[in-house]
Amino acid sequence: MYLRIDRLQVQLPYPKEPDPNSAAALQELLGGRFGEMSTLMTYTYQSFNFRMYKNPVIKPFRDLVANIATEELGHIELISAAVNALYTGSTKNVPPEQTPLKPLKDARNTYHAINTGLGAYPMDSHGASWRGDYIFASGNLVLDMLHNFFLEVGARLAKIRVYEMVDHPTAREAVGYLLTRGGVHALAYGKALEELTGVEVWRMLPIPNIEDSKFPEAAKYMKMGSHRTLYRFSPNDYKDLERIWRGTHPADGQPLTVHEGPPEGGEYLDLPEIPEEYAPGLSGDDLRRVAKRLGIEL
Ligand code: MN3
After folding, report:
1. Which of 72, 76, 101, 175 shows its CA 20 to 30 Å from the CA of 268?
2. Do the Cβ atoms of 160 and 169 come closer than 8 Å?
3. For all residues of the chain together, what is the average pLDDT?
């Protein structure tokens, strides 16, 4: 089962200006083939489907996959927060005949404006739905770890290309952080493969051949040690992942560590209403009426 904490894994800067097309690009990192939905659901279903999970040899691998899956839940949350933020101020609060949504008519993604109230959605950068068959859970431990290694590397390439496409500070903060965390996961699955087979697959990293430290936002999180830290997203469980996540980081020789509990993170961005989208669609007298029913003093 899951517990939930009402914080983002990192503090995102409040957007000073809108950038709808950057929001569309970020969608690839949420609902694209190599997006956070794919890592989340792949690791989640692998963790659901383990055989012999109490076997002491199998358990460290299940603990690793289950724990990383839980972190990924916070990644879809973080990238969604960035998508939502990038739409702030993108429309006009004017009457319908003055076409309040016109600024978005020629935006890359009109689905956000028409169907979601300018919110994130599990779709890719062209608005195609995320697909359940992006999940890979073969039941074979070596093959699943090999797939996860590949998936993290594919996700890294997508993040790097999106980073090179967008310069909005809110977008870059999210992508820089996720780049760092994806690096942890790629290394973790590489080390899992080494434990299973003796092959040091992680020596292939980084793919593509550019260090995370070249991206200023990622470099900031590396200075904080994020690139060598696995957070344990459970008060009492998944402890055997430490049998895999140990040793030193190949980039700087610093020790790999497990942090008990989640990162400190940051507050959700409190985004304003969008009356022209009717989102949330309560204001003025409506709010006062509902407040009265809920027993809330405004
Ligand atoms: Mn991720």
Report:
1. 101
2. no
3. 97
- In 3D, which of 241, 255, 201 has the Cα closest to residue 70? 241
Q: Which two tokens stand for residue 198?
A: 């003796």
Q: What is the CATH number of the domain that holds 192?
A: 1.20.1260.10
Which SS3 state, helix, strand or coil, does residue 224 take? coil
Q: How much distance in Å is there from the Cα of 140 to the middle of ligand 1?
A: 22
Distance between Cα 51 and ligand 1 center (Å): 25
- On whether residue 252 sits in a domain, the answer given is yes
Query: Do residues 40 and 73 make contact, with C-beta atoms less than 8 angstroms apart?
Result: yes
Return residues with CB closer than 5 A to ligand 1 (ion).
36, 39, 72, 75
Report the number of distinct structural domains present in the chain.
Answer: 1
| Backbone phi and psi for residue 17, each to the nearest 5 degrees, phi listed first | -145, 155
Alpha-carbon distances of 296 from 124, 241, 281, 290, rounded to whole Å: 40, 46, 18, 8
pLDDT tens for residues 245-262?
999 999 999 999 999 999
